[in-house]
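We read letters as residues; the fold follows as tokens. A sample entry reads:
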Amino acid sequence: GDTEALSKTTGDDKIPYISASYSAHLTDPKATPYNFFCAPDYTTGLRAGLKYLKDNWKEKRAPKVVFIYPNHPYGIAPIKGGKEYAKELGFEVLGDENVDLKAIEANSQLLSVKNKGADFAWVGGTTNSTAVVLKDAKKLGLTTKFFINIWGADETTPKLAGGAEEGALVMVGSTVYGSNVPGMKQLMEITKNQPQVTHYIRGYVSMMVLTEALKIADKKGQLNGPGVKAALEMLKNFDTGGLAVDKITFSETDHRPFMKVNITEFQKGKLVVLKTIELPRKAEWLGL
């Protein structure tokens, strides 16, 4: 919410902003010219999760999906685009459930999910509220499969959820710590082999991208806001050594860095990459 609220100010002041908000609303340069980020936006993550679930659906009936999220700009951001894609894929979309970011229980919402017979549930909160959802779902005996937004779960979730996270899917915008990719060697040296959450890796990638843009702008003698923005928009297939899900490309008309998402699953307390989903770079999805 803060990043979206600041977008007009950063635009007016011509300050390039590589954010940790991944709202799709920030990807259209016509609306937010100075906003960038280096992960799949929330709606791309939601769409990728829906595609993965539908691709693996075996029953003849339509799968039922429910959306659980806080009444907050972060939670609301991907819902419209996600629901449209769910219907396009053939899901039966059930009524929403609101779980606050500061929730300490979610019994009534999850009883509603259970009574609706939801096969799948999107969880669009953050780690603490997601843990509440998962624990209460297990306590109430739900068989619903949960798929979780990029900020909703990470390597700390097993401790928070106490095992209730087993089998839940997480839409991840990077590789996981210790994976066998070229860029991991330097990152592990910097962190002295102390495991880091996926959010750390995304932050590291953001600084790789910003550093590259600063170098480009400096060489052109344009080390200022507009110059760094122009440098970022020149990046084509910028290689992060496999730390991001794909090579990063920005343009003057599209600030989506890539269209791939790692679908990961909690297995015995670890995040395991199941598949990388690539979506088309549809013009009508820009900003939605």
Notes: The chain has a mean pLDDT of 97. The CA atoms of residues 51 and 89 lie 7 Å apart. The beta strands are 17-18, 35-36, 64-69, 92-93, 97-98, 120-123, 145-148, 169-172, 260-267, 270-278.
